[in-house]
């Protein structure tokens, strides 16, 4: 049994990498709930007054936490799987929204209690933690370019750049100093373009396979295309 989680900034290419590895390693992929999330566009487009009144940031955080908890429970029972952003990163997004004043002190306390209860429940599952996080990182300019390229309308407002930068500037620190569930394989999106360059995609697949072998993680059940 092997589990890989994909981490990284908004727009870094997590879904593309999860799809790539899912095909290459013949693994189940659990995708982040974005397209069917009706709260997400409201989080980006609602006025400050409406967000304050309807508490969209807190509702969005709870919705993501619920879906990530569901996915990781399923993944811990599946022989081989890949998760497109996991429950481990959810706290970082909640913290950033709390620091920005979008989530109140009381809401953040409730969120942390709920997350702690969920993590305790995971201890009873057959597998306790991922085998590897593949972390996509890169320059802020590259992140913005990727966000623009994928063209989600609600992500394009220039006023969001400050939010993106706040997330970006603390992400490496979270991975280096706060994520302890597994070892991390870092891949620079400035150096590897898996979506448009076949050679880069093949190199990244090889890097992941080599890291799993180094960790002694069995993946004999994987079959390559």
From TrEMBL:
<dbReference type="GO" id="GO:0005524">
    <property type="term" value="F:ATP binding"/>
</dbReference>
<dbReference type="InterPro" id="IPR050566">
    <property type="entry name" value="Deoxyribonucleoside_kinase"/>
</dbReference>
<keyword id="KW-0418">Kinase</keyword>
<feature type="binding site">
    <location>
        <position position="90"/>
    </location>
    <ligand>
        <name>substrate</name>
    </ligand>
</feature>
<keyword id="KW-0067">ATP-binding</keyword>
<dbReference type="GO" id="GO:0019136">
    <property type="term" value="F:deoxynucleoside kinase activity"/>
</dbReference>
<dbReference type="InterPro" id="IPR031314">
    <property type="entry name" value="DNK_dom"/>
</dbReference>
<dbReference type="GO" id="GO:0005737">
    <property type="term" value="C:cytoplasm"/>
</dbReference>
<feature type="binding site">
    <location>
        <position position="44"/>
    </location>
    <ligand>
        <name>substrate</name>
    </ligand>
</feature>
<feature type="active site" description="Proton acceptor">
    <location>
        <position position="84"/>
    </location>
</feature>
<feature type="binding site">
    <location>
        <position position="85"/>
    </location>
    <ligand>
        <name>substrate</name>
    </ligand>
</feature>
<feature type="binding site">
    <location>
        <begin position="8"/>
        <end position="16"/>
    </location>
    <ligand>
        <name>ATP</name>
    </ligand>
</feature>
<keyword id="KW-0808">Transferase</keyword>
<dbReference type="InterPro" id="IPR027417">
    <property type="entry name" value="P-loop_NTPase"/>
</dbReference>
<feature type="domain" description="Deoxynucleoside kinase">
    <location>
        <begin position="4"/>
        <end position="210"/>
    </location>
</feature>
<comment type="similarity">
    <text>Belongs to the DCK/DGK family.</text>
</comment>
<feature type="binding site">
    <location>
        <position position="61"/>
    </location>
    <ligand>
        <name>substrate</name>
    </ligand>
</feature>
<keyword id="KW-0547">Nucleotide-binding</keyword>
<feature type="binding site">
    <location>
        <position position="32"/>
    </location>
    <ligand>
        <name>substrate</name>
    </ligand>
</feature>
<feature type="binding site">
    <location>
        <begin position="146"/>
        <end position="150"/>
    </location>
    <ligand>
        <name>ATP</name>
    </ligand>
</feature>
<dbReference type="InterPro" id="IPR002624">
    <property type="entry name" value="DCK/DGK"/>
</dbReference>
<dbReference type="Pfam" id="PF01712">
    <property type="entry name" value="dNK"/>
</dbReference>
<protein>
    <submittedName>
        <fullName>Deoxyadenosine/deoxycytidine kinase</fullName>
    </submittedName>
</protein>
<feature type="binding site">
    <location>
        <position position="155"/>
    </location>
    <ligand>
        <name>substrate</name>
    </ligand>
</feature>
């Amino acid at each position: 049994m092997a589990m890989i989680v994909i981490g990284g900034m908004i727009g870094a290419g997590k879904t593309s990498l999860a799809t790539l590895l899912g095909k290459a390693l013949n693994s189940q992929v659990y995708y982040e709930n974005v397209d069917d999330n009706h709260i997400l566009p409201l989080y980006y487009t609602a006025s400050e007054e409406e967000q304050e009144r309807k508490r969209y940031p807190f509702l969005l955080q709870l919705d993501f936490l619920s879906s990530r908890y569901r996915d990781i429970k399923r993944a811990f029972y599946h022989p081989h799987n890949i998760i497109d952003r996991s429950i481990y990163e959810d706290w970082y997004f909640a913290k950033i929204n709390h620091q920005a004043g979008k989530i109140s002190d009381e809401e953040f306390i409730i969120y942390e209690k709920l997350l702690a209860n969920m993590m305790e429940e995971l201890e009873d599952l057959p597998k306790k933690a991922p085998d590897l996080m593949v972390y996509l990182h890169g320059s802020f300019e590259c992140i913005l370019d990727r966000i623009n390229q994928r063209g989600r309308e609600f992500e394009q407002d220039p006023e969001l750049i400050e939010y993106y930068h706040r997330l970006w500037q603390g992400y490496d620190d979270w991975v280096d100093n706060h994520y302890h569930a597994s070892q991390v394989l870092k891949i620079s999106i400035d150096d590897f373009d898996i979506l448009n360059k076949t050679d880069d995609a093949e190199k990244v697949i090889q890097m992941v396979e080599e890291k799993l072998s180094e960790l002694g993680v069995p993946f004999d059940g994987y079959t390559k295309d």
